């Protein structure tokens, strides 16, 4: 299965055994939206609600930290997802939160997972059916997940990278927050970026309807930002959400080595001891 699947592909397979569709919507607080309520008001028939906003590791000091493999397995089991199922993720979010869910499941070692291109908005606009009601599914035994979390970076590792510059740092936030011209109002922090970072706004990888641009256009966006997708890189943003969009796009280019700085600016920007830069990428 391709990592990015069109709406028609999903619509034709909704009744296929072993295909599980998960709503991975999550929103910024400023959106004023309740993802669970939105799901109940209308979702892809048979879909289950992932509650991505709560799929974090509460034992970590990192804000909204990446969940452990065991936490991912327990969540999937509670939704009745069985080992061997094919998972398709979608969202109805401006920040393309399905990509965060894709990264979580991929790094946990789930072998067959894809993202619906164009979000629920495209599904709805094309006249595909919707279903109302809360998510319901019988639980099952937790699958065994043994993925390698070596592609999740800590603040300590990001500080070490400042000296050795072994990984390109890609910041997925908008230019205003990256340069410091505007505050990072989402996290109540001044703008700015990790020294040496390059800016690739996640929205530049998408069409206005939220679908992904072609691979050629994605490659061109990486090049304009001064990023070599074949070289080591780590993506950052505000809290690890839209950085996942950049990493998914990186995967669409055929690469599987992109890492995530999960703490991102919510951790780096809040620490008075970390070095920070403002202005355009240097």
Quick take:
This protein is α/β, with parallel strands linked by helices and 282 residues long. Helices cover 29% and strands 12% of the residues.
Radius of gyration: 18 Å
Shape: globular
Total count of strands: 10
Main sheet record? 5 strands, parallel
> What share of residues is helical?
25-40%
Strand coverage percent:
5-15%
Report the total helices.
10
Distance between the termini: 39 Å
Low-confidence stretches: none
Strand order of the largest sheet: 1-5-4-2-3
Question: Could you describe the 3D structure shown?
Answer:
With 282 residues, the protein is an alpha/beta fold. Helices cover 29% and strands 12% of the residues. It has ten helices and ten strands. The protein has helices at residues 7-11, 35-41, 69-78, 98-108, 119-125, 155-164, 175-179, 215-224, 242-252, 264-268; strands at residues 4-5, 19-23, 48-49, 86-90, 113-116, 152-153, 168-171, 198-199, 233-236, 259-261. The chain has a five-stranded parallel β-sheet with strand order 1-5-4-2-3. Strands 6-10-9-7-8 form a five-stranded parallel β-sheet. β4 (86-90), α4 and β5 form a beta-alpha-beta unit. It is globular. The mean pLDDT is 95.
């Amino acid at each position: 299965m391709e990592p990015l699947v069109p709406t028609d592909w999903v619509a034709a397979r909704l009744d296929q055994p072993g295909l599980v569709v998960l709503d991975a919507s999550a929103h910024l607080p400023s959106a004023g939206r309740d993802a669970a309520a939105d799901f109940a008001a209308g979702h892809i028939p048979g879909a289950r609600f992932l509650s991505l906003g709560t799929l974090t590791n509460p034992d970590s000091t990192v804000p909204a930290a990446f969940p452990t493999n065991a936490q991912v397995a327990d969540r999937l089991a509670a939704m009745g997802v069985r080992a061997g199922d094919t998972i398709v993720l979608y969202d109805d979010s401006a920040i393309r939160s399905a990509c965060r869910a894709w990264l979580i499941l991929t790094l946990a070692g789930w072998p067959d997972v894809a993202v619906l291109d164009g979000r629920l908005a495209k599904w709805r606009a094309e006249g595909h059916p919707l279903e109302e009601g809360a998510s319901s599914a019988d639980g099952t035994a937790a699958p065994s997940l043994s993925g390698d979390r070596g592609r999740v970076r800590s603040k300590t590792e990001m500080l070490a990278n400042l000296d050795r510059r072994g990984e390109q740092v890609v910041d997925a936030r908008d230019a205003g927050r990256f340069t410091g011209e505007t505050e990072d109002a989402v996290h109540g922090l001044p703008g700015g970026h990790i020294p040496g970072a390059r800016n690739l706004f996640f929205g530049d990888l998408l069409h206005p309807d939220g679908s992904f641009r072609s691979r050629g256009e994605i490659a061109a966006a990486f090049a304009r930002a001064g990023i070599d997708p074949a070289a080591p890189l780590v993506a950052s943003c505000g809290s690890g959400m839209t950085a996942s969009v950049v990493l998914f796009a990186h995967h669409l280019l055929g690469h599987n080595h992109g890492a995530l700085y999960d703490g991102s600016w919510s951790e780096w920007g809040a620490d008075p001891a970390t070095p920070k830069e403002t202005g355009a990428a240097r």
